[in-house]
Amino acid sequence: MSFLLLPSEVIEHILISAAAGGFPEAIAAFAQTCKANYSLVYDSPDQHLWREIYLTTFDDPRASGGGPGWGECSQEHPQDDWDWDSDFQERTWAARYIRHQTDHTYRLSTERPTDEEVTHRNIRAFDALLSVIDTALPCPPTIVLSFLQSGGGTPSPTSAAEQYPTFPPLPQAIGGFSNSIVTVGPSDAGGRSFGQAIRARNIAWLESVLANGYPPEVTAGFSGEKWAGGLTGQFLNEVEFHEMQAASQLIACTGLIPIPQPLADIVPVPAPYIQDVYMSVEKQRQRARRLARMRVYNMRYLARERHWGPFLPVESAKKSHARRVTVEDDELLQPIIALFDIARAHRHPHDAGHNHDEEHDENENGDATDNDGMDVDEETDEEDAGSTDSEDHAELAAQDPEADVPPEPPASSELHADWAYLAAVRVVVEANLREQVHNVRDLRGLLSLDGLRPGSAPWDASAYKTPAAPEDGADSSPSKGKGKERATESDECDGWDWAGVTGIWQRCVCWMDYRDLIHPSLSEAVRIIPMRLRIKSYSPCTIPGYEHLPTIHVVGETLRELMPGRPRKMHGTVSIIADGSVRWTLYSTIQGGDTDEWVSEGIQVGGVASAMGILGMWTGAQHERMDPLGPCWAWKVA
Asked: Locations of Acidic residues compositional bias (predicted)?
């Protein structure tokens, strides 16, 4: 009997089985056999076939997005009209492209495309991979692990280690690495382990596609001698900048994946990346760490137009037309050396080595000390602080009455995450953690790609409530005033913990003496700081399209029972910025202090309330000229 005589339902079932079996290319090949088959595949009056094909491989996008309580508060599902066929085809193309680029035998047998073609293909592939992360299925609340004590009591110091793990527990239970899935109790009806049964299809697919990493040129770009396009990407055109940001966002999510070794059996070919291909995995990590430090500790990022955080610069109308200044290759060292030249005019030479860290080391008496264990002279610290921006502008205005008054920092509605900086933060802090943690397997809970899923951080379902639906005719959006409205704590509204704030967190902060950047051997101070956060109030969100996610006002403190020295009180906000990223702003000072000392600005990695947490930077809260700068990574453990 001819294949064409089979009922269309049977043919569709065969095509769906081909996709489920890992042969999506067979669908396109079948469609090319004749017009009737082409029409069956591509000219169907509805999307039922492609929806079933899509769901054999990927999570249902209609159930994606959000975090704790998200589904209950959502009024609509924008994915109801999901473009099943084109999205599946884009992802299939991306998988084939990434695998071909990381198959070195394939690369040797094909002709090299132009750089422009490579850039456009990379963008297409990276955008597809990012969409897979964005639509990963949230972790179901039925298996969320919480270490919070009943009644919200404070744990005793003797049981603190048992109550609060160092790293997120859920992704480790799921089994983020293919060889780390453990069976917990009886397997399900399909014979799969507990971890396999609750894994997201999107994450499993992503891991398979990136089994050999990213295209070698991309990996080499993150482990080269210097950043292509300048330290801040200032020499890239619009398309190249898009490629850099997309690749950086993936690196922030997955970490650096070194080019696999060994490749000794492959015949070398002349190519710019070839020396990096034959570099050992450890060497690639070392070079990537060195390059990432150049970006992470670059004082250029402490700028008002970046809101002193990991955001793309928002230039004023006057600056946007200014000529771009050429920056030399030593653009990292020159600003730092210049800062120390300024500092030398205000202090004695023997004081030049004071380090400024987010959490000062403390002696047994609770007095602040420097990294060598010597008491810090408070009067010298005050002199070292330098002048504030306002003082600088006041002095400038006195000299020139027409000098511009410093503008307000950009509003949340103007901010976009700078993934190039955040990727560098990921590389630096992860490298430091690998050195600090003796057993790298302990990092599984933090580095697992399942930690990118919404709601994968531990949370207690009883702690969340969704906002009441507005009455008919009532306007639930914030009031509109003149100019750019900035919601404040006084503009309180109803809300719920949509970001999974409440609980116990760990935050890793890193810093170094800027003089060390001049020396060939660098070392960083690394500290993991436990903190407890809770919600104080909510205020309206002013970002169009995200009005249903109120700004969360947070308070908290570091946990004295889990760390030596004086505890610090904390406060800040969790909100949405213009590109839809979740922004975390936290201020801290010692208990009893009246002025904020330090501030960290971070961006949530992956979905809302993800176990992978927040990447960002910390600096002085008053934004003074000599403020330090360092990377930080925070994640929730209970």
From this structure: 359-386
